[in-house]
Amino acid sequence: MTLLTRPRPPIRGLLSVMLACAVTGAQAAPQTTLRPVARAAVAQTAAPPIVAPVVTDAGTVRVPLAARVPADARPVARTTAVDMIRAAGLDGQVGFVIADADTGEVLERVDGSAPRPPASVTKALTALYGLETLGDDYRFVTRVLATGPVTGGVVQGDLILAGGGDPLLDTDDLAVLVQQMVDAGVTGATGDFQVWGAALPEEKEIEPGQLDQLGYNPSLGGLNLNFNTVYFSWARQGGDYAVTMDARSATRQPPVQTARVTVADRTGPVYTYAAGADVDEWSVARSALGEAGSRWLPVRFPDLYAADVFRTLAREAGVTLPAAAAIGVLPATTTELSRFESAPLREVVTDMMRYSTNLTAEVVGMTTTAERQDAALPMRASAADMEAWITARAGFAPVLFDHSGLDGNNAISAADMVALLDADGVQEVLVPVMRPVVMLDDQRQAIADFPADVRAKTGTLNFVSALAGYVATDSGRNLTFAFFAYDPEARAASRASLDEQPAGAAAFNGRAKRLQQDLLQRWAVLAGIAGQRQASATAVTVTR
């Protein structure tokens, strides 16, 4: 039996496939949905001096830093965070706290005690929970097992595909398992082909209030493949459409039998979903398809989906297996035929924080709880366990219904988030896995040589925008911050609209993100940034 670990960075391989597979349809076609993708690197171009908004009778304008801060005085902003929030049109909707990362001194706060949805900032809590409990080197393991000996290439018993929760497992990884099995001389089995996905409790979706077709709200369990999404593509052929459902990867494109789609003559809704007999039944409105297009749809039978793809790959390699049967308990005695290990947990978490993958967050959180409790718990019970862990770790109790932040009922205050980020040992764990936040000018260009490094986790839902993390300044003063913007009335209306892109959501998010930039740039100034870059000897360390 050969042990193989992933030789390439996780997620990026499948992400590149998902990007390459995006097909642009007609204007009315269903939106192509990919895994969360990090924004492209921003060109490092020259930029105007650091600026922050000033409220005048004529409105909000930007003025150079030198015009606002006397050179011989301690930097003082002529506007406050309250002024900036009001100018952004977000009055009463923002909780913001910024503190000295070394002393814990709160430097400024606006409505910092009010709990608000953290969205994907929740993943920072999950990252800490997982890394401190499981350790940096923890790996998820997927195996192929036999219940009897191999005689003449044939397993004398059942063949089992056994999941270990790996949130990054893709079709190419299953092909590695198949090849190991073939290299061991296996050509078939006398018994059943079984699949075990009970290492974690199965959840049909992360947040039931989301639209059925959203790929970022998939099922999850102990066996996850391709982020538990299936690739749906369509193209007009004469007066009809050719449609396909497959589990494509960087090198393969196996068709699937556990998800089907039909084209329906209706004006709406665009998608409908029904759970069939171990198969996902989708329909899509003909009027929405245009000429051609594609998107990744969630699967709701994750273990059977993975087994379906494994069986196809095995058949292509010369191994004949019957249709899979799901089992809830592994036999007491088995022989391992092949095995695939994920990347180390730190790498898994780093990519989770960069791409904000919801499935990864839920799997990491539930696996951590299983380790703590010596038993796998459903997602909401696991989130409650993480709540209790955070309370013990940092002295406050957030409200958590999941590990990813997709549930808009999660709640934490900006003050409590900053308290967690400032707790002993937290900076050392989170700073290395947080992604850099580029400071931008009014033209959305990177500010060249900005005198601070910002590492943070973003969070976005409709009418929710969050950002929390660390600022390492060149003056040697380091900051911790949390920003949560939330419009509850608009969010409630957007959920009732059943629209993937509700009116006003993009504008709200844009205002909130610009305000985040303004507040961070303002506090970089107030931290006394000027002159030569100096190394910081504080607890916050940012690797460039």
TrEMBL record:
Signal sequence segment: 1-28
Keyword Protease in record: yes
GO MF entries: serine-type carboxypeptidase activity
Keyword tRNA-binding: no
Domain of life: Bacteria
Pfam families per record: Peptidase_S13
Keywords: Carboxypeptidase, Hydrolase, Protease, Signal
Gene3D superfamilies: D-Ala-D-Ala carboxypeptidase C, peptidase S13, DD-peptidase/beta-lactamase superfamily
Alphabetical GO biological process terms: peptidoglycan metabolic process; proteolysis
InterPro entries from the UniProt entry: Beta-lactam/transpept-like, Peptidase_S13
Protein family per UniProt: Belongs to the peptidase S13 family.
Protein name: D-alanyl-D-alanine carboxypeptidase / D-alanyl-D-alanine-endopeptidase (Penicillin-binding protein 4)
Protein's organism: Loktanella fryxellensis
Organism lineage string: Bacteria, Pseudomonadati, Pseudomonadota, Alphaproteobacteria, Rhodobacterales
